[in-house]
UniProtKB/TrEMBL annotation:
Protein name, UniProt field: Tetratricopeptide repeat-like domain-containing protein
Transmembrane segment boundaries: 27-45
Keyword Transmembrane attached: yes
Keyword Membrane tagged: yes
Keywords noted in UniProt: Membrane, Transmembrane, Transmembrane helix
């Protein structure tokens, strides 16, 4: 390689180096900003996760404390006194529905369940469970036809609580005096492979109590 060629290479390398440094001086702040932004986002996400964990733990501790009361009415008041929105509010309502002692408490809990059941901001799984629990409370408060109308959308194929709703439907038919319809509904539960053992056992016991045949139900 001649001295001329060597000189040209050195000049070209120097030019490339100057251009690189120039680009770094001009655009380097962008790379630095991106790094700072990435670090900031990662820190925020981790902080948010820590906040969510702390919030969930505090919520759980409040539920445990509320359930520690011996008196059902005190448990219900403590549960419904926990600040909550959305899914958490639905969960508290479900727990409160199992701690009823007075007609007033039952009426207030029923109203809350109905509110949750119609709240589109709450996941459908919780809304439908709230509707089912509300219907269960209404079994002794409303006329059988009204209960059956409320249960109808909960018993369609694919509904998450379909089998439990069918059980309530059978009870409503019994109240209405439609024993044969109730037995057929209970047989549908027994023959459904998705039904739990406890649910099938309850259905079989009610079939027998209503004078139905278990052989037909099993078949």
């Amino acid at each position: 390689m001649s001295d001329r060629d060597s000189f040209i290479d050195e000049v070209s390398e120097e030019v490339r180096r100057d251009r690189l440094f120039g680009m770094l001086r001009r655009y380097g702040w962008i790379a630095i900003a991106l790094v700072v932004l990435a670090v900031g986002i990662a820190a925020y996400v981790e902080w948010q996760r820590a906040q969510e964990r702390a919030s969930a733990q505090a919520f759980g501790d409040q539920i445990v404390a509320a359930l520690s009361y011996d008196n059902p009415e005190e448990r219900r008041e403590a549960l419904l006194g926990i600040p909550a929105e959305g899914t958490r509010r639905a969960l508290l309502a479900m727990l409160a529905a199992d701690t009823l002692e007075t007609d007033e408490a039952e009426a207030r809990t029923l109203e809350l369940l109905q509110q949750i059941g119609s709240d589109d901001t709450i996941p459908s799984l919780y809304r439908e469970l709230a509707r089912l629990k509300a219907v269960m409370l209404l079994q002794d408060r409303a006329e059988a036809p009204e209960v059956l109308d409320l249960l109808e959308p909960l018993t369609i194929p694919g509904a998450p609580y379909r089998l439990l709703a069918l059980e309530q439907q059978a009870l409503a038919h019994v109240r209405a005096g439609d024993t044969s319809v109730a037995i057929e509904t209970l047989r549908e539960i027994v023959q459904d492979g998705a039904a739990t053992r406890d649910l099938q056992a309850r259905a079989r016991q009610l079939i027998v109590a209503l004078g139905g045949s278990l052989e037909t139900a099993e078949g």
